[in-house]
Backbone:
């Protein structure tokens, strides 16, 4: 089953399917050790990883297991990062939210704005009942994004991954359909 991958627009952002021309920007993002300091995988050292990532995005949509969208700033087209819904389960009406942004994009509300648009699509179009997210307990900024979106911290996964050789914990967050607050700004899908 194929999952229609949308293009979403907010006031400041465009969320769109990845294309082959995104490989360089994607490699720059995922090879940045500072950006990935809480990531559960090391920074990329080979550009082919970006090409495989883009292929995996297409495969995810084709298989109907999720969508991963590039996030561009509308004013100048700058690639800021990506936002995703994966592990989509139509029987349970659930999915997991993920995102990664260039450090130059941090602190401007872009992660919250993009995730809010994707959640709007998830709850209204996919009819999801629950979206889950996880973040390293040291990543306070990511936890703040989730909490601004209405996610509730549900627990801690103790020593669930190794980040840069260091064992770390993750917080698990959940957002239920009945708790979802629709965005006040318009979100359009094409």
Residues:
């Amino acid at each position: 089953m194929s999952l229609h991958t949308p293009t979403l627009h907010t006031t400041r952002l465009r969320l769109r399917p990845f294309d082959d021309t995104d490989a360089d920007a994607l490699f720059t993002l995922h090879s940045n050790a500072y950006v990935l300091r809480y990531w559960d995988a090391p920074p990329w050292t080979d550009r082919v990883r970006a090409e495989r990532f883009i292929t995996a995005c297409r495969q995810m949509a084709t298989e109907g297991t999720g969508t991963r969208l590039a996030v561009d700033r509308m004013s100048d087209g700058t690639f800021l990062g990506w936002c995703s819904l994966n592990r989509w389960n139509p029987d349970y009406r659930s999915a997991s939210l993920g995102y990664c942004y260039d450090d130059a994009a941090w602190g401007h509300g872009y992660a919250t704005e993009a995730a809010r648009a994707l959640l709007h699509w998830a709850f209204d179009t996919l009819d999801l009942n629950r979206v889950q997210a996880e973040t390293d307990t040291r990543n306070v900024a990511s936890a703040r994004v989730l909490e601004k979106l209405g996610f509730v911290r549900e627990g801690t996964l103790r020593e669930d991954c190794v980040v840069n050789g260091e064992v770390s914990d993750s917080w698990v967050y959940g957002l239920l359909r009945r708790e979802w607050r629709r965005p006040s700004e318009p979100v359009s899908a094409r």
Remarks:
- The two ends are 20 Å apart (CA to CA).
- The longest helix spans residues 48-63.
- The CA atoms of residues 23 and 51 lie 6 Å apart.
- The chain has four helices and nine strands.
